[in-house]
């Protein structure tokens, strides 16, 4: 039975999940689920279907558009009914910043309305547990960051089975989950991660549509999994449950990558960030496949991934992209952004790096061939909103949402 829980009590209790669940916070009276013996396999095959749905605002329109996206994919009931579902969100760039007069969810992190819409739809489809996950470099529960990001925690915790876990370290678990890279890997043969990435039947990536100036070219559903590596093992402060350092050691030697990280294959410490990060993205997605990819292109930024990039600007493609094949979903999102998902390495938008979307296709994780992807809903041409268009230069002054911003 669900019991009422105040915001302050909820934020405090989620530091110890079993207590939070037992006392009525989190929508359920019992604690986090036990490990799933047979995780749902990701859909396979040489072709894919991706839903491209118009959505110009958050709130009720986002809920309707996400539901329409799932309907266009044939529904999600068979995927999630009776299952434990993990939802990886993107809470990059603490402390969160208002950009161009807009809250962070409208620009560079996962919006609370898309999280709430997804949780409601998962619950309606029969999901048994819904775990929101992210590795936030704070000695606080994930709800602390979600609250700072403007999420409606009261509405989320009213949904049966909703849980939150900061996966920066062991979290609520007693051991790290070792996820093997099936093909042996490029940079990692395995990854040691928080238990919640193992103890789930279904893994969903809920992200923003953005470029990634620092290391990846674009950051979409597959790049979102980069954040599953715990700061306690892969961070710049070394190993320890209390360590909060940035994942610089994965990037390259200049950012602390002098030691071999858990699962790292020897001999690649001197590779550039533009090689190590794309390799890592593919290894992570091979080890922990995405079952459902959701890219929020309602409103976002172009020119980079966060407030620290100097040449960012706002842009509003006004779409949601969703699919069961993460490679195909990212390929369609890239096409909407005006990019070729199979672009050669070290060409736009991968000027200083390998193309991780094409690498993932080569690794057999999905298809990036637009001719083999059935796009349902909007056409790519109707949705295309070039992120490098001269019509929306980075750093320009931006009108308020009420008066509108460039929408494709």
Characterize the structure shown.
This protein has 408 residues and is an alpha/beta fold. The protein has one domain (49-383). 25% of the residues lie in helices and 16% in strands. It is built from 14 helices and 14 strands. It has an 8-stranded mixed β-sheet, with helices on both faces. A two-stranded antiparallel sheet has the order 5-6. Strands 8-9 form a two-stranded antiparallel ribbon. Helix 3 packs across helix 5 (112-124). The protein is globular. It starts with 6 loop residues before the first helix and ends in a 25-residue tail after the last helix. Residues 1-38 and 390-408 have low confidence and may be disordered.
Numbering strands along the chain, what is their spatial order in the largest sheet?
A: 4-3-2-7-10-13-1-14
Residue-averaged pLDDT: 87
Number of strands: 14
Helical percent range? 25-40%
Question: Biggest β-sheet: count, sense, barrel?
Answer: 8 strands, mixed
Shape: globular
- Beta fraction: 15-25%
Distance between the termini: 45 Å
Low-confidence stretches: 1-38, 390-408
Return the string of H and E elements: HHEHHEHEHHEEEEEEHHHHEEEEHHEH
Radius of gyration equals 20 Å
What is the domain tally? 1
Q: Which tags fit this structure?
A:
alpha/beta; eight-stranded mixed sheet; globular; two-stranded antiparallel ribbon; disordered C terminus; 14 strands; 408 residues; 25% helix; disordered N terminus
Describe the SSE topology.
Elements: H1 7-13, H2 17-22, E1 48-54, H3 60-72, H4 77-80, E2 84-88, H5 112-124, E3 129-134, H6 142-148, H7 153-157, E4 162-166, E5 177-180, E6 190-193, E7 202-208, E8 210-212, E9 217-219, H8 221-224, H9 231-234, H10 248-251, H11 273-287, E10 292-297, E11 300-302, E12 313-315, E13 319-323, H12 326-336, H13 356-362, E14 373-377, H14 380-383
Parallel strand pairs: 1-14, 2-3, 2-7, 3-4, 7-10
Antiparallel strand pairs: 1-13, 5-6, 8-9, 10-13, 11-12
């Amino acid at each position: 039975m669900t019991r009422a829980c105040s915001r302050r009590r909820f934020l405090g209790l989620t530091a110890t999940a079993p207590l939070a669940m037992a006392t009525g916070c989190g929508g359920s009276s019992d604690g986090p689920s036990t490990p799933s013996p047979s995780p749902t396999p990701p859909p396979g095959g040489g072709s894919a279907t991706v839903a491209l749905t118009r959505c110009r605002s958050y709130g009720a329109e986002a809920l309707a558009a996400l539901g329409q996206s799932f309907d266009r994919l044939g529904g999600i009931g068979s995927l999630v009914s009776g299952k434990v579902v993990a939802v990886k969100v993107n809470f990059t760039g603490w402390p969160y910043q208002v950009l161009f007069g807009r809250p962070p969810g409208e620009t560079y992190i996962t919006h609370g309305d898309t999280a709430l819409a997804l949780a409601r739809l998962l619950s309606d489809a029969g999901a048994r547990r819904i775990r929101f996950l992210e590795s936030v470099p704070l000695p606080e529960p994930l709800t602390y960051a979600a609250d700072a990001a403007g999420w409606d925690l009261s509405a989320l915790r009213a949904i049966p089975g909703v849980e939150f876990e900061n996966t920066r370290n062991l979290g609520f678990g007693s051991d790290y989950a070792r996820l093997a890279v099936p093909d042996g890997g490029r940079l990692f043969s395995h990854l040691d991660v928080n238990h919640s990435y193992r103890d789930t039947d279904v893994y969903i990536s809920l992200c923003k549509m953005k470029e990634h100036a620092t290391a990846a070219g674009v950051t979409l559903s597959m790049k979102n999994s980069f954040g599953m590596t715990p700061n306690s093992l892969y961070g710049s402060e070394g190993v320890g449950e209390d360590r909060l350092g940035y994942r610089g050691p994965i990037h390259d030697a200049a950012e602390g990558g002098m030691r071999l990280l858990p699962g790292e294959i020897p001999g690649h410490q001197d590779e550039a960030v533009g090689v190590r990060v794309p390799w890592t993205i593919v290894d992570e997605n091979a080890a922990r496949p995405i079952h459902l990819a959701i890219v929020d292109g309602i409103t976002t930024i172009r020119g980079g991934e966060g407030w620290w990039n100097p040449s960012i600007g706002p842009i509003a493609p006004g779409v949601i992209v969703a699919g069961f094949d993460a490679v195909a979903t990212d390929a369609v999102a890239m096409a909407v952004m005006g990019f070729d998902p199979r672009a050669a390495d070290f060409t736009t938008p991968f000027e200083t790096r390998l193309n991780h979307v094409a690498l993932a296709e080569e690794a057999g994780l999905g298809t990036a061939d637009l001719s083999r992807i059935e796009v349902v809903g909007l056409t790519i041409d109707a949705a295309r909103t070039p992120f490098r268009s001269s019509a929306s230069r980075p750093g320009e002054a931006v009108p308020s949402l009420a008066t509108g911003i460039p929408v494709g």
